[in-house]
Design goal:
Layout: H1 3-19, H2 22-27, E1 29-36, E2 44-45, H3 47-54, E3 65-75, E4 78-87, E5 93-103, E6 109-118
């Protein structure tokens, strides 16, 4: 992976989040992905578990959020990205995010861990 490839993956990630299309979500991840919303979480294991989680009851209301992430570093198949997720509710909220990702040979994410902090 290189920076441009990871940036394209991040753009597809945001598009899939906004669409809630299970095929778009699934296309991002390896069959055996290990996915953590927080570094201390037990990971979701497998593509379908990630798709099911994204489409679950706790999903964000479409049109109430946006995000922008960019690659900070790439070392072989591991990448780090940072950015923001913004929510338009009352009150509006902004989160600063850091993702650590590992990709397989097909450019699908095989390991994903997210850290985020709400802006004051």
């Amino acid at each position: 992976m290189d920076k441009a490839e990871v940036d394209r993956w991040l753009e597809a990630y945001v598009n899939a989040w906004k669409s809630y299309d299970p095929d778009e979500i699934g296309a991002l991840f390896a069959d055996d992905v290990s996915y953590r919303y927080h570094p201390y979480d037990q990971p979701l294991e497998g593509r379908q578990a990630v798709v099911d989680s994204w489409l679950g009851e706790d999903r964000d209301e479409p049109g109430t959020y946006d995000a922008s992430y960019r690659t900070v570093a790439v070392d072989g198949d591991v990448a780090v990205a940072t950015g923001t997720s913004s929510y338009t509710g009352d009150p509006p909220r902004v989160f600063h995010n850091c993702f650590v990702m590992r990709f397989d040979a097909d450019g699908r994410c095989s390991e994903y861990t997210e850290w985020y902090v709400q802006a004051p």
